[in-house]
Design goal:
The chain is α+β, with helices and mostly antiparallel strands and 158 residues long. The protein is 46% helix and 23% strand. It folds into 2 domains: 62 residues, Orthogonal Bundle (Arc Repressor Mutant, subunit A); 89 residues, Gyrase A, domain 2 (2-Layer Sandwich). Keywords: Amino-acid biosynthesis, Arginine biosynthesis, Cytoplasm, DNA-binding, Repressor, Transcription, Transcription regulation.
Length: 158
Amino acid sequence: MKKMNRQNEIKQLIERRAVERQEDLVTLLAEVGYNVTQATVSRDIKELKLIKVPTPDGGYRYSLPTRKTENEDSQFRQSIQNYLQILKQSERFVSLTMHPGHGPAVAMLTNRLDFPEVFTAIGDDATVLVVCKSDEAAKQFVGRLEKMRLKNVTRVDD
């Protein structure tokens, strides 16, 4: 628990202040009760995947990595366009039949992209079950998929 708390503190520190060096983090952590070595901070930086970004004054500071939403959005779109075979909706449930091997990735991307219509998605080798927040939300999600210019997809209505 202490490690997780310390790493959360590091995230807060680098969001509030321009922290340039590991030694600065050691000092700042000590001020809030975490007496750690530079080696510990170095491991935390690696685990948190912190990056250094330029500052307006020409220096550098630690920052959290940017989320790869654009890349994930592109992966989702390509997977839907290239591997979706059958699209079905029944009430608030949407079933996606994928080419074998693509179900888990599409389910993961559906959850990561945090679509407003979606409650959750689960997938096996070739099927993704998307549970939407309502019947209307399911219709909206299906509409979103259909806007991706689906090729050779069988649409099955309830």
